[in-house]
UniProtKB/TrEMBL annotation:
One of its GO terms (cellular component) is cytosol. One of its GO terms (biological process) is carbohydrate catabolic process. GO terms for molecular function: beta-glucosidase activity. Belongs to the glycosyl hydrolase 1 family. It comes from Faecalibacterium taiwanense. Keywords: Glycosidase, Hydrolase. Pfam families: Glyco_hydro_1. This is Family 1 glycosylhydrolase.
Length: 433
């Protein structure tokens, strides 16, 4: 094992809704409570990180990690349109201070999938007004906290809506072609998107969900951030990022700003080259005009995707699969970093990379292979500045609930007791301080 140079971030990541608990003013919370929800279970108190963040950050730092990526929850900061909650901001100020007290760089994400319910009632992430609404929230947060930060991600996985649209179309086609095998088709689709989704349950609940969503959000198809994105909505997300970045730079010129993208290692088998090229264009290339002014790009990768003459392929026969039905393929991270660096010339930070498994020995193996790849990239002059493992703790994996074990720390669902896994210490050993 080779340590990284001093100043390289070795950290772990979380998202507010997945760990804090009781995010009652968010769109996700509302959807979790629907009688025919697509969520296997509600988030509830999650990992109670809102109250236990000091314990969690101490565990991270004591293991040798020097950075913590977490998100600020818009629905807490602005629970009603135009009404900001100073207590929520003070909470995040304490989290930032706690990081610094333990020698961990706080890297903040301003939107990690969840939005205030009121925003969705206005049209959500397909409404023109959202650009200004997001900017106003960002301005408030940065005026309050910006002087205490050095790195900010505006939007987590800005391309997720497009990925979901592609996967949903594929799922529906598979289900129509073989209705009797719809369950297996859904399982296959779920394993190709880097977020916990239940496509099969969504299909079954569609007729009920429309009515229930209309009652809660005023529309049968609420446009949350993790909805199938239209081309217009995709442009809106890019514009929201640019507006937020410019606002941050105006308030806090010293802060380094970027967004994060969900990126697969797209591998073409003979005859699949055109499909892989088109997928990369959708997943990455068309974002370049909107991120070229950014200070860094957050690279988020978990696996690879194979393409053949007919399009996307399933994982190779006999391939090891994770709990999320992803292929165990840590080499993907190096491939994606190299591909991104061909066109994006700013700094790169691996803001998410990890594996859902009950076998922590496989997590250790994944970390070691992934970090070997990062070090190869750095040796070749690619400006990679940090690696954040997903996730700090086992948490609420969106529609999949608490069954997915991504964490470096185990959380007892009954008592909330934390237990560091061996993988946490292994990751910490790479830190050069």
């Amino acid at each position: 094992m080779q340590k990284f140079e001093k100043g390289f971030f070795i950290g772990a990541a979380t998202a507010a809704h997945q760990v804090e608990g009781n995010n009652i003013n968010s769109d996700y919370w509302a959807q979790e409570q629907l009688p025919h929800s697509s969520f296997t279970e509600p988030s509830g108190i999650a990992c109670d990180h809102y109250h236990r963040y000091e314990e969690d950050i101490k565990l991270l730092a004591d293991a040798g990690l020097n950075a913590y990526r977490f998100s600020i929850e818009w629905a807490r900061v602005e629970p009603e349109e135009g009404k900001f909650d100073p207590e929520a901001v003070e909470h995040y100020r304490k989290v930032i201070a706690c990081c610094k007290a333990h020698g961990a760089e706080p890297i903040v994400t301003l939107l990690h999938f969840t939005s205030p319910k009121w925003l969705i009632c206005k049209g959500g992430w397909e409404a023109e007004s959202t650009v200004e609404d997001f900017k106003n929230y960002v301005v408030y947060v940065m005026e309050q906290l910006g002087s205490e930060l050095r790195y900010v991600c505006t939007i987590n996985e800005a391309n997720m809506g497009l990925q979901l649209a592609t996967i949903s179309k594929r799922f529906r086609l598979m289900a129509e072609q073989a209705a009797q095998n719809a369950a297996s088709a859904g399982k296959s689709a779920e394993g190709t998107v880097q977020v916990g989704m239940n496509f099969q349950k969504m299909m079954e609940n569609m007729k009920f969900a429309a009515m229930e969503n209309a009652q809660v959000f005023g529309t049968p198809q609420p446009q949350i951030f993790v909805s199938e994105r239209t081309p217009e909505g995709n442009l809106l997300v890019r514009r929201a990022h640019a507006a937020a970045r410019d606002a941050i730079k105006a308030i806090c010129p010293q802060v380094k700003v970027g967004l994060t993208l969900s990126l697969h290692d797209l591998q073409a088998q003979p005859g699949g080259e055109a499909f892989a090229q088109a997928a990369w264009q959708e997943e990455f290339t068309h974002y370049l005009p909107y991120i070229k002014e950014d200070d860094f790009l957050g690279v988020q990768n978990y696996t690879r995707t194979l393409y053949g003459p007919q399009g996307q392929l399933s994982a190779s026969e006999g391939a090891e699969l994770t709990q999320m039905e992803y292929e165990f393929y840590p080499q993907a991270l190096e491939h994606v970093i190299r591909k991104v660096a061909e066109e994006f010339k700013g700094d790169l930070i691996v803001t998410e990379n990890g594996i859902a498994t009950a076998d922590d020995a496989r997590r250790v193996a994944f970390i070691r292979q992934a970090l070997d790849g990062v070090q190869h990239c750095i040796a070749d002059g690619i400006p990679v500045k940090g690696y954040f493992h997903w996730s700090l703790m086992d948490n609420f994996e969106w529609q999949k609930g608490y069954a997915m074990q991504f964490g470096l720390i185990a959380v007892n669902r009954e008592t909330m007791e934390r237990t560091a896994k061996p993988s946490l210490a292994v990751l910490g050993e790479y830190c050069g301080a």
